[in-house]
Amino acid sequence: MRGSSQPLFGARARRARQALARVAALALAVAATPAANADLVAKINGLRKDECATRPAASPLHVDDTAADVARELARGRKLEDALQRASYPVSTATSLHMKGTQGDDGVRRELAANYCSALGDARYSEIGVFRKGDEYWIVLASRKFVPPPLDPAATAARVLELVNAARAVARDCGEGHHFEAARPVTASPTLAEVALEHSRDMAEHRKLGHPGSDGSAPADRVTRSGYVWRGTGENVASGQQTPDAVMKSWLASPGHCENIMEPRFTEMGVAFALAPEQNPNIYWTQVFATPR
């Protein structure tokens, strides 16, 4: 079957043409908006690199759809905090810029350079969202809050033990002039793990990294009062590292911590972490080595 068409005449034809024109104009505007915003973001990143640069220079801002949703909420009259919540942006830090009456992206660029360089050059911000309505611009600069994956204590302890024994399996230098040959692997000690957990919790509770306990105890004191009878013991502590691999990398890079890991006389180990939610640092680690008597 062949198709057929019906010609349109008079007012009906004009209305149809007007409707088509409106649809085409809307489609063109929607299609042009991302490109226009991309041009503006490129100009902002140019400012971030040149006129508004800090030392060291901040990395370029990346366009983020959720940050753009925040900007859109600002255009609806919401405060920044409310806009971030409504857009479900997991914020670490953020600021917003609002301009009206500027002529084109070049005008926006000039106003940003004149009035907002400190924000544009701030290295804390990594993402940008833009919303434009006529000659009015809402710009959000933000960085996301890092939420570390949950750590399973048993799996974490097993991974640290694996990494410790991999390190002990090869000769290494722990700082200048402290060479260690490969050593036998250590085994996990539940008692030493409890000692490590107690101290990690103590550090997290008091927000203080160090070997002395809040009760004045030294590492050896804590091992002794656990009932562990030892000939030698050592302790590593750390804070802030979010994974077992990260904390081991930190310890091996530190001569004193590295020496504990490589000490051939140690035969047992316990390790544990404790969280300090909403704090910086938000995690504390303790690693206890010992040789039983």
What does this structure look like?
With 293 residues, the protein is α+β, with helices and mostly antiparallel strands. The protein has ten helices and ten strands. The strands form three sheets. A four-stranded mixed β-sheet has the order 1-3-4-2. The protein has a four-stranded mixed β-sheet with strand order 7-9-10-8, with helices on both faces. A two-stranded antiparallel ribbon has the order 5-6. The longest helix has 40 residues. The protein is elongated, with a radius of gyration of 30 Å. The N terminus is likely disordered.
Order of helices and strands: HEHHEHHEEHEEEHHEHHEE
Distance between the termini: 97 Å
Catalogue the unreliable spans: 1-9, 20-33
Q: Going across the major beta sheet, what is the strand order? A: 1-3-4-2
Average pLDDT level: 87
Radius of gyration: 30 Å
Number of helices: 10
Number of strands: 10
Biggest sheet overview = 4 strands, mixed
**What's the overall geometry?**
elongated
Question: Helicity level, as a percent range?
Answer: 40-55%
Please state the structural category: alpha+beta
Strand fraction: 15-25%
Oligomer: single chain
